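Subject: design request, 529 residues
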């Protein structure tokens, strides 16, 4: 059976093309070797389950590993302590029957704890059994629990965390686990005993003994290249592994699901679709951009989870909107609740103490989502729909024509608005105008290195061609000339000789129109609105 790029569930090295997890597993083992209790909190589809399963195998020579998944415990089994102990003992029984060298006494005690006919089974009995098992075991015990936050709203789960905390604090007197690893999206350390009225419990987390988890689980360019090397050994496509790996990383910032999904699209979806006849033609720059266009448009479970969070966290939504459309700098303050939530859910990351969108794909998906909310009511979007046919010439996008018509339409619709409105709305309206023109064929992304409250570079991909459009606010001639030079250097990065600039000028004496500027061997087409 040939390997595939897996995007559904945990990966297995015999079945799937994977990055080498050994460096990460080695770092995690170092934490277990020193007896740390900790959490692995990452966004959805970030490779947590794959890492935990690989870790259990990696540790088995040194430890007895008990791996559990709280998704196997039903919601009504969290109603009280007895129900939870019965359910957890049942899940433990399933696991330890497969292990060797489990003392018979321990097997019998977990069987008894799982018996629902025995009422008033207390959590203290469960932890006494854990302790005796740790005392009798030939190897230190490691407890790993996946999807642990599926139980986070239940008081009985908080009591369970409190028992783990007590065992950790008493570990020098009473045998307990060598290490405990809890994995999920939500940071268990931030869960308060909120169901109790005691003010101290309201402030203190039952998991405040957890060590920081500093292992980077995203994929580097070298990680991606290693995975593609394995694929290339099997398929012999002749791809430029270094270049394709860099393209994938630039788009995903190493988000594991997105990396695998792009690879899956190039491996399985694109071959046979015009103009890609086979894998050799898909593992190219053109194939990558086609795969990126597909992944941005699809409606997958990861995007659904992200969009759902916007509905439940209004402050998070406002912050992301400002970050995308106004370019307002937002400091990354870890103690700020919506910054913490945005990072926990995978929306943002910390770059030089500033909050930035995690990757280019998420950024474009969010842009599309926000502008889609305005499709029905936006005059600018409707103008783009009505004018779209005039902007395609011989299969090529006529960006200069787009800028001319946008400038005319924008001035007609919004020219009498105040400067504050125009500063906040200008870029959004250009994307609204552009979207129906390239929809179905082209795609766009915002270059994160240039996005701020005064400048933003939009890279448009259409029929295998790239176009760079700088959107900027007018701040005087000297600043404007620097912007032209910056755009020229950016064109050099993309190996382009022509670029475009859209300047929002709020000077009442401005001259609306389009002009051509030469800087060295570069041609800049500038439109002023």
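Subject: RE: design request

Done. Sequence follows.
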């Amino acid at each position: 059976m040939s390997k595939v790029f897996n995007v559904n569930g945990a990966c297995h090295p015999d079945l799937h093309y994977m990055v080498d997890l050994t460096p990460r597993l080695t770092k995690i083992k170092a934490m277990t070797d020193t007896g740390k209790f900790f959490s692995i909190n990452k966004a959805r589809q970030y490779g947590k389950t794959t890492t935990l399963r690989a870790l259990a195998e990696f540790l088995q020579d040194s430890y007895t590993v008990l791996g559990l998944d709280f998704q196997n415990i039903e919601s009504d089994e969290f109603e009280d302590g007895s129900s939870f102990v019965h359910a957890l003992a049942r899940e433990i029984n399933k696991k330890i029957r497969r292990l060797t060298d489990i003392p018979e006494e321990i097997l019998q005690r977990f069987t008894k704890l799982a018996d629902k006919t025995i009422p008033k089974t207390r959590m203290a009995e469960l932890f006494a059994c854990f302790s005796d098992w740790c005392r009798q075991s030939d190897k230190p015990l490691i407890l790993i629990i996946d999807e642990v936050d599926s139980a986070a709203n239940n008081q009985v789960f908080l009591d369970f965390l409190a028992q783990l905390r007590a065992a950790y604090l008493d570990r020098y007197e009473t045998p307990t686990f060598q290490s405990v690893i809890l994995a999920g999206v939500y940071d268990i350390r931030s869960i308060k005993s909120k169901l109790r009225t005691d003010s101290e419990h309201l402030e203190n987390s039952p998991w405040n003994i957890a060590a920081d988890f500093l292992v980077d689980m995203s994929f580097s360019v070298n990680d991606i290249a290693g995975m593609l090397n394995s694929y290339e050994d099997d398929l012999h496509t002749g791809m430029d592994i270094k270049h394709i790996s860099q393209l994938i990383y630039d788009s995903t910032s190493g988000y594991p699901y997105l990396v695998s999904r792009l690879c899956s699209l190039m491996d399985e979806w694109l071959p046979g679709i015009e103009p890609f006849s086979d894998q050799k033609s898909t593992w190219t720059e053109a194939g990558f951009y086609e795969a990126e266009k597909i992944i941005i448009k699809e409606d997958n479970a990861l995007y659904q989870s992200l969009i759902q969070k916007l509905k439940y966290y209004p402050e998070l939504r406002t912050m992301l909107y400002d970050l995308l459309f106004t370019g307002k700098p937002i400091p990354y303050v870890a103690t700020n609740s919506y910054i913490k939530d945005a990072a926990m859910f995978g929306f943002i990351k910390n770059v030089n103490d500033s909050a930035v969108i995690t990757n280019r794909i998420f950024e474009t998906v969010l842009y599309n989502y926000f502008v889609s909310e305005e499709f029905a009511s936006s005059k600018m979007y409707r103008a783009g729909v009505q004018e779209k046919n005039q902007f395609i010439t011989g299969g090529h996008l006529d960006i200069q024509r787009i800028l001319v018509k946008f400038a005319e339409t924008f001035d007609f619709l919004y020219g009498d608005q105040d400067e504050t409105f125009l500063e906040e709305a200008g870029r959004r309206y250009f994307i609204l105008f552009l979207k129906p023109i390239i929809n179905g064929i082209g795609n766009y992304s915002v270059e994160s290195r240039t996005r701020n409250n005064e400048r933003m570079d939009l890279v448009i991909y259409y029929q295998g061609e790239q176009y760079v459009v700088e959107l900027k606010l007018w701040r005087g001639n000297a600043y404007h000339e620097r912007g032209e030079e910056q755009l020229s250097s950016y064109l050099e990065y993309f190996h382009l000789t022509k670029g475009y600039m859209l300047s929002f000028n709020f000077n009442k004496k401005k001259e609306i129109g389009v002009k051509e500027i030469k800087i060295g061997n570069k041609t800049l087409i500038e439109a002023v609105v």
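Residues 221-297 form one domain.
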